[in-house]
Amino acid sequence: MMRRRGGLVRMAATTAVVAGTAGAVHHHQEQKYANQAAQQQAAAQPEQVVYEAPPPAAPAGIDMEQLKQLGELHTAGVLSDEEFAAAKAKLLG
Description:
- By secondary structure, this protein is mainly α.
- It is built from 3 helices and no strands.
- It has helices spanning about 1-45, 65-75, 80-90.
- α2 (about 65-75) packs antiparallel against α3.
- The longest helix has about 45 residues, at about 1-45.
- The protein is elongated, with a radius of gyration of 37 Å.
């Protein structure tokens, strides 16, 4: 009688291992097929190209280097807000 129980426990353990393995394989196959379908769908869609507008050009006659220097002096605290605005207006015309 003891031998049968050992056999039943062994059979139950074997069944559990087989069922677990089958579930894992099934899950792996589902993921594989889902990834393949996603790749095919992505390949079927045309690639979108995004164009960016070029940066606006500085108006002719403006010395950008002087404008940068004014900004640096203002950031450093050498020029007050009013002095910076006046110098910038004079530079821009």
